[in-house]
TrEMBL record:
Keyword DNA-binding: yes
Residues of the signal peptide: none
Coiled coil: none
InterPro entries per UniProt: Homeodomain-like_sf (IPR009057), HTH-type_TetR-like_transc_reg (IPR050109), HTH_TetR (IPR001647), NicS_C (IPR041474), Tet_transcr_reg_TetR-rel_C_sf (IPR036271)
Residue ranges of DNA binding: 49-68
Chain intervals for the UniProt region annotation (Disordered): 1-24
Domain HTH tetR-type: 26-86
Protein name per its UniProtKB record: TetR family transcriptional regulator
This protein's UniProt keywords: DNA-binding
PROSITE patterns associated with the record: HTH_TETR_2 (PS50977)
Organism per entry: Azospirillum oleiclasticum
Lineage: Bacteria, Pseudomonadati, Pseudomonadota, Alphaproteobacteria, Rhodospirillales
Amino acid sequence: MAASRSKAKAAETEAAPAAETKRDAAATRERILVAATQEFADKGYDGARVDEIIRVSQVNKNSLYHYFGSKEQLFTAVLERVYENIRARQSDLSIRSMSPEEGMRTLVEFTARIWEEVPEYNRLLASENLHEARHVRQSERIVPMYNPLLATICELLKRGEEAGVFRGGIDPVDLYISITALSAHYISHRHTFEAIFKTELMTPARLEQRRRHAADMILRYLKA
């Protein structure tokens, strides 16, 4: 009996460090991703330095390569995290339950808020475009994230056409590219626009005006 209790206690003692190690591993991986997101956003893929990511995340080089394998795989993981956050913010299910016009307006405004609230996402995607989406193509996770979004847009377009509020023949991919362009371009080029037009573009009132402007443009384009 005593031997059984001793074995059980030993098993508990071994399990505790294992659980702690798992929590530590998740925390370490998160620290690396946070540091890498900022480094890649600030300097682009080519300019980013793994040593700086290691310094900021306070891990050793072996740990970084254990979790991510290489700088390229780390950048892919950062992009996957970015796209996951973008898709989470766009909230397909709540949009799909709205009327076609309300749902489309909400999608435009949600998308605009992403670039406003997390401008580093725009810089990361700009860097990836310089590499012709090499890392996106390598990911098995990013492309499937957008299938539900396209399905939602198609559903809104179909219901809008049936209700007589949207015209037919709208390409959902073209539409989403336009939605993104109307908001992302505003944020990514704000510094030059502000310098040229001597206008502050990032005040709450200005951002709200831009969101309404973008949504109005999309809805007028869709109008039957």
